[in-house]
Amino acid sequence: MKGLKFVMTGILFGIVMSKSEAISWYLIQEMFRFQSFHMYGLMGTAVTLGALAVFLIKKFQLRDVQGEPIQFQPKEKGITRYLAGGIIFGLGWALVGSCPGPLFVNLGHGYWAILVAIAGGLLGTYFYGVVRDRLPH
Amino acid sequence: MIEYISQPWPWYVSGAVIALVMVLLLFFGKSFGFSSNFRVICAACGAGRQVPFFRFNWKAQTWNLLFLVGAVLGGWISEEFLQNGEAVQISQNTIQDLRQLGFAAPQGLQPEELFGAEALGSVPGLLLLLVGGLLIGFGTRYAGGCTSGHAISGLSNLQLPSLIAVIGFFIGGLITTHLVFPLLFS
């Protein structure tokens, strides 16, 4: 079962997002009101350790489980798409209180109403695909 | 042990486990980025017939759909087996701010006002979730990633575009929280 490791990693992700309470609308509100350090500490720790791991992987040219060198795709240069897209994303993030991962973790918690937001996410992605060529990037 | 991990996890443990998730995916030869799944699902549903953006080999992304299934299962496991039965703890200031907008103090993980049966049965409640979802789906693809792809994977790889995107995420979130919410909920 080659796919099982991805399911297991997803489960770990679902549990950490739940137990850190980062999937809660209340914590996202607390974060955007700068009234707690929790979410900043969480992201800061993840990025600091993540950056250290990426540095070590590059330095020692580590390989993945298939024996292929681990490669990193640099993001395309630009400002407009990242800033405009980022702001649009942020508007929705604070409204629903979940980013894409937590939308699905909340589904596991039995918050069925979040299916409406997931449907919105799919429609929004589809709409982007339709108007993509007419947008500045 | 179960009792111990059923407590809310501190930020430094949570942050370390999130970094571990990213590193595990790197060692599996993949890149952590959740919102790509929206594009994959659109493509799998046949959106490529009308829109070229969805014409790609989505089957190569099956691993990410499996990760998504795991995320749902992880939520379910947390709900069923790792609960301490207490409402989320947020600061008194947040409770007061939210009370002014008509939200009661937390009773659980999510506000009933937005995710309860009553919200599902009301047009404004449904619209809020739908519009929020639309903005998330559109914005994340326009920006080329979400919190996982940019804030975690991108920043860990010291990508300037990701930093710009994350600044955008916060500008948008601050606008909704401080300018839109007072109009919506008062």
From TrEMBL, chain A:
The chain crosses the membrane at residues 38-57, 82-105, 111-131. InterPro entries: Sulf_transp_TsuA/YedE. Keywords: Membrane, Transmembrane, Transmembrane helix. It comes from the Bacteria. This is YeeE/YedE family protein. It comes from Rufibacter sediminis.
